[in-house]
């Protein structure tokens, strides 16, 4: 089982090329087709003063420049790139809808973590959250800070037996096949409602071993510690280059709500995170 198609979101922001480079390496390793989707709306200041026709012209010019740079990188990496420039989105909500459409037809989508210092309105602040909760596909979120030359070599799995956690582990199997280390960590396994066996996380570790993945079962009681920060601290201590976890949330009426740990990870992540819902 391997990935056949991967989607990466690109824009003209400072973190886009890093994300694209990581997508190239992953597509080459998986022998997958790489699709790049360019989508961003006009900056807030421009939106107030510029006609739509001029915005579209500017959008096309930026997209062409980004496409040329990405194509050069893909050629150098010997990866077949299928480029898509989305129709000019008039709002950040349209950016989200465009990404949702393409994501639902891919094995994996790669997007960036929201950078609070980039507040020009070109991208939705909740893009990653919306894709995770609405697309039905695994989403690989790349932090805006840091460099990630390696990926899927040292993997940490946050395991709690929930449906979302089960999906995340299954979705991550193609990424974990070549990992040197897979550390499965059950957080607070004896809390009410969790269905662990006699040895927490041992059963899912055995399942991964049947897929040829060397997995180590472990568990941790956080007591008064924050689970999200604990996960990130342990990932850093072990030099993990990928965190796999289920994303928890629901949508009362039109307001999407994330679980506390999921929200904290997306805000403070320091390592790429694969999330499934």
Q: What would you note in describing this structure?
A:
It is a single chain. The chain is of the alpha/beta class and 277 residues long. It has two domains: 5-142, Rossmann fold; 154-276, HUPs (Rossmann fold). It is 40% helix and 21% strand. It has nine helices and twelve strands. The protein has helices at 16-30, 44-49, 52-77, 92-103, 127-134, 163-176, 202-210, 227-237, 260-268, and strands spanning 5-10, 33-38, 81-85, 108-112, 139-142, 154-159, 181-187, 215-220, 242-246, 249-250, 257-258, 273-276. The chain has a ten-stranded mixed β-sheet, sandwiched between helices. A two-stranded antiparallel ribbon has the order 10-11. β6, α6 (163-176) and β7 (181-187) form a beta-alpha-beta unit. α4 (92-103) runs parallel beside α5 and α8 packs across α9 (260-268). The chain starts with a strand and ends with a strand.
């Amino acid at each position: 089982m391997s990935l056949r198609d991967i989607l990466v979101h690109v824009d003209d922001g400072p973190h886009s090329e890093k994300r694209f480079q990581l997508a190239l390496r992953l597509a080459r390793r998986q022998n997958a087709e790489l699709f790049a989707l360019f989508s961003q709306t006009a900056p807030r200041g421009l939106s107030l003063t510029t006609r739509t026709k001029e915005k579209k012209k500017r959008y096309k010019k930026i997209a062409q420049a980004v496409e040329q740079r990405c194509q050069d990188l893909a050629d150098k990496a010997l990866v077949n790139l299928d480029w898509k420039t989305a129709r000019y989105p008039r709002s950040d909500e349209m950016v989200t809808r465009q990404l949702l459409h393409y994501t639902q037809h891919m094995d994996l989508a790669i997007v960036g973590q929201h950078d609070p210092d980039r507040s020009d309105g070109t991208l939705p602040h909740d893009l990653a959250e919306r894709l995770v909760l609405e697309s039905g596909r695994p989403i690989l979120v790349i932090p805006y800070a840091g460099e990630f030359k390696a990926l899927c070599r040292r993997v940490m799995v946050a395991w709690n037996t929930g449906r979302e956690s089960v999906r995340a582990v299954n979705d991550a199997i193609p990424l974990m096949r070549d990992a040197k280390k897979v550390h499965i960590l059950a957080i607070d396994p004896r809390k009410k409602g969790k269905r662990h066996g006699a040895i927490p996380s041992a059963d899912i570790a055995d399942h991964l071993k049947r897929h040829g993945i060397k997995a180590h079962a472990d568990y941790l009681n956080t007591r008064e510690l924050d689970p999200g920060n604990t996960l990130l601290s342990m990932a850093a201590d072990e030099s993990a280059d990928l965190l796999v976890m289920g994303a928890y949330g629901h949508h009362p009426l039109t307001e999407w709500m994330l679980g506390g740990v999921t929200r904290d990870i997306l805000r403070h992540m320091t390592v790429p995170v694969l999330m499934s819902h």
